[in-house]
């Protein structure tokens, strides 16, 4: 039997305690290393999960419009949590389960500082466009469009005022009709006054003869009473004298009646003259009031206009002022006639009537008749009345009338009214980005009518500052314009869509420029803007072309008459030139709409319309040769196409308006396939914050509690900020053991 004896165990205890310390140190070192790796692992998991989420960018938005955005359907946290789950459990979805040294659980996940497409004035969309367009060689376009931008804006501004002036042609015709009526009244009054003066002269001998016969009859009657022996012969003479007196009285009454009738006619003519003068005064005031806004607008524009446009503006204002000012020839003549008529009415009212004059002594009656004849002739001596001759020939102005009738048809009917079926699309309001821009004070409001004279000047800080050099504003403006041209279809591109597929016939570019609800309204506004630009350039060309300017001058003189109508002739000449430029512009815009080219600065060989054929060609007629032109072959390779002119119009539109209207079209087009798509839900940048926990693995001693929280686990908090822009980078922070 073996006997157990007690032996000292110091060494065993020492070794055991040493092993515990060594194992604790080893486990602590392993846990420390594991925690360090766990930190990196969690950061990697967060970064990878967020990158995976942002790789789900909207494919249609990228493929068609080259914009990187993530559509937020409200499940961003859920998606990131799903990606994180593969890091929490690497064996997820696998049949074989393995050991994982870095397990963790996501306690909380949330986002902060999210930036969407429409935030910050839609700057995320603008940044994406600039990133896409930075290799678009936009810098090469700056020098090409600077001068055209300048002149394009001046064309729109000045021709808006000029069109308002030329639109007054009808009122001028009405005023001229009043002058013509005044002329006829003045001539009739002169004729009646001359006839009345002649009648006054006829009355004088009759009055004298009547007076002599009355004296003779009186003497014979007295003699008959005194001598009865001579009564038989005296009575015979008395009967004869009385008979002659009766005949003279009849003649005198007849001539006096004629004088009264002439004076009645003169009275009626003076009333007509008063009416004509009042109508002239009212028509002139109405015309001046109507012409005041465009004239004031021209005065405001003059400091900003180039020499060519300044000369045109000066000619317009000088011609109008020469026609309407108070000391003008025609106005002065009307005032003179009015003064004379007033004097005539005052004179006739103060003088005795014809019946009273007939009762006076011959000497007094003859003096009054002489004075009456002289005064009537004097007050109706309108020496300038002949200056109104042929003024009625202004009504022969077929060109002005036909062009006015064409303008009333509308430019869309003139350019596309050839049986072509236009897009009937209507962009319905509701959730469009531009509507949000209106609520937040951005510049997405609809534009005013294009034909009206704008009151405020230029958009986007002023055109004149913008084109002063290759500034950031101009560069960004051009980039946005080029982006729209590259990605949006127009009327000319109606056969192909923006992605090169079969076209839907929608006019997205026209919407950006017009911002109306229907494609046809937008197309009409764009055509009107193009018409104004072409009309201004053609108007300048006509003023420079001496031969064509002389033709207009000749026609103006023929329409207004040569004598005394120089101010009106100058104004009518400018109206004729404006009408001629309009007819040429309609032909130009029609050529652009058909895919042809039109030079911005024309030469003689580029001009298509003659003065005689201008109305017919503007209405859709043929060229002077009688052969139909093919607009696509006009000028060969010279000139600018429809898209080139749209580039100018886009550059003349503020950057904010272009940006928001582009987003309108992007959203509308994508919604055709995805009804729930909205640009406001497109995420550009966000910061994901997550709070995770991890259990201890190598350290389970109570001493390790000093490194953990109350639940005995490690807690980490990290943040990962990501976006599609170059300026965004990831950040993380962490807390825990």
What features would you describe in this structure?
There is one protein chain. The chain has 737 residues and is mainly α. The protein has 23 helices and 4 strands. Strands 1, 2, 3 and 4 form a 4-stranded antiparallel β-sheet that branches. The relative contact order is 0.14.
Strands, helices and their partners?
Elements: H1 10-54, H2 59-65, E1 70-71, H3 76-88, E2 105-116, H4 119-133, H5 139-166, H6 169-226, H7 231-301, H8 307-324, H9 329-350, H10 354-358, H11 362-379, H12 398-409, H13 411-416, H14 433-439, H15 463-466, H16 472-487, H17 508-514, H18 519-544, H19 546-560, H20 566-593, H21 614-618, H22 642-651, H23 655-671, E3 682-694, E4 714-723
Antiparallel strand pairs: 1-3, 2-3, 3-4
Helix pairs in contact: 1-3, 4-16, 4-23, 5-7, 5-8, 5-18, 5-20, 6-7, 6-11, 7-8, 7-9, 8-20, 9-11, 12-20, 16-22, 16-23, 17-18, 17-23, 18-20, 19-20
């Amino acid at each position: 039997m073996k006997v157990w004896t007690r032996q000292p165990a110091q060494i065993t205890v020492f070794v055991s305690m040493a092993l515990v310390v060594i194992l604790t140190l080893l486990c602590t070192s392993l846990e420390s290393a594991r925690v360090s790796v766990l930190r990196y692992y969690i950061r990697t998991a967060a970064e990878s999960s967020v990158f995976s989420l942002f790789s789900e960018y909207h494919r249609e938005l990228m493929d068609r419009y080259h914009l990187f955005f993530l559509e937020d359907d409200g499940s961003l946290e859920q998606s990131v949590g799903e990606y994180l789950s593969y890091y929490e459990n690497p064996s997820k979805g696998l049949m074989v389960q393995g050991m994982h040294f870095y397990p963790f659980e996501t306690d909380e996940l949330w986002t902060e500082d999210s930036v969407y497409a429409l935030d910050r004035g839609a700057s995320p969309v603008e940044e994406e466009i600039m990133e896409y367009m930075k290799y678009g060689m936009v810098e090469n376009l700056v020098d090409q469009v600077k001068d055209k931008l300048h002149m394009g804006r001046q064309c729109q501004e000045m021709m808006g005022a000029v069109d308002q002036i030329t639109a007054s042609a009808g009122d001028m015709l009405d005023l001229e009709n009043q002058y013509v009526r005044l002329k006829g009244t003045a001539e009739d009054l002169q004729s009646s006054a001359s006839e009345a003066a002649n009648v006054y002269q006829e009355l004088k001998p009759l009055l004298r003869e009547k007076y002599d016969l009355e004296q003779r009859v009186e003497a014979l009657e007295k003699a008959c009473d005194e001598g009865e022996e001579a009564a038989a012969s005296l009575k015979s003479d008395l009967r004869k004298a009385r008979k002659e007196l009766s005949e003279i009285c009849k003649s005198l009454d007849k001539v006096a009646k004629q004088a009264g009738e002439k004076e009645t006619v003169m009275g009626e003519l003076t009333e007509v003259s008063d009416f004509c003068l009042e109508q002239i005064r009212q028509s002139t005031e109405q015309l001046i009031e109507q012409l005041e806004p465009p004239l004031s607008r021209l005065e405001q524009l003059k400091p900003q206009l180039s020499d060519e446009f300044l000369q045109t503006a000066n000619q317009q204002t000088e011609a109008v002022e020469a026609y309407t000012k108070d000391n003008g020839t025609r106005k002065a003549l009307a005032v003179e006639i009015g003064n004379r008529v007033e004097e005539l009415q005052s004179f006739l009212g103060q003088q005795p009537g014809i019946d009273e004059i007939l009762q006076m002594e011959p000497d007094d009656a003859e003096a009054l008749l002489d004075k009456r004849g002289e005064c009537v002739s004097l007050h109706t001596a309108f020496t300038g009345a002949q200056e109104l001759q042929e003024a009625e020939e202004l009504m022969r102005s077929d060109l002005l009338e036909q062009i006015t009738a064409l303008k009333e048809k509308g430019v869309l009917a003139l350019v596309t009214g050839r049986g072509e079926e236009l897009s009937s699309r209507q962009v319905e309001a509701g959730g469009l980005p531009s509507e949000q821009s209106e609520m937040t004070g951005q510049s997405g409001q609809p534009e005013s009518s294009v034909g009206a004279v704008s009151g405020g000047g230029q958009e986007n800080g002023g055109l004149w500052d913008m084109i002063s050099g290759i500034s950031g504003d101009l560069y960004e403006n051009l980039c946005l314009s080029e982006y729209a041209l590259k990605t949006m279809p127009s009327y000319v591109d109606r056969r192909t869509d923006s992605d090169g597929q079969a076209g839907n016939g929608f006019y997205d570019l026209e919407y950006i420029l017009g911002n109306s609800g229907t494609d046809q309204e937008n197309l009409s506004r764009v055509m009107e803007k193009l018409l104004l630009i072409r009309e201004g350039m053609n108007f300048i060309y006509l003023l420079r072309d001496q031969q064509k300017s002389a033709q207009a001058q000749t026609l103006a003189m023929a329409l207004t008459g040569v004598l005394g109508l120089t101010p009106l002739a100058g104004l009518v000449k400018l109206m004729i030139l404006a009408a001629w430029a309009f007819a040429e512009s309609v032909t130009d815009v029609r050529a652009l709409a058909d895919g042809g080219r039109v030079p911005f600065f024309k030469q003689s060989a580029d001009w298509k319309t003659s003065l005689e054929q201008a109305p017919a060609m503007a209405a859709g007629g043929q060229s002077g040769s009688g052969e139909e032109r093919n607009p696509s072959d006009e000028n060969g390779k010279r000139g600018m196409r429809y898209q080139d002119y749209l580039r100018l119009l886009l550059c003349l539109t503020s950057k904010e308006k272009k940006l928001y209207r582009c987003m309108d079209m992007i959203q509308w087009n994508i919604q055709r396939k995805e009804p729930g798509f909205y640009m406001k839900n497109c995420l550009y940048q966000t910061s994901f914050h997550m709070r995770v926990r991890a259990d201890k693995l190598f350290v389970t001693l109570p001493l390790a509690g000093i490194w953990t929280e109350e639940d005995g686990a490690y807690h980490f908090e990290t943040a990962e900020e990501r976006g599609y822009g170059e300026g965004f980078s990831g950040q993380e922070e962490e807390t825990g053991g």
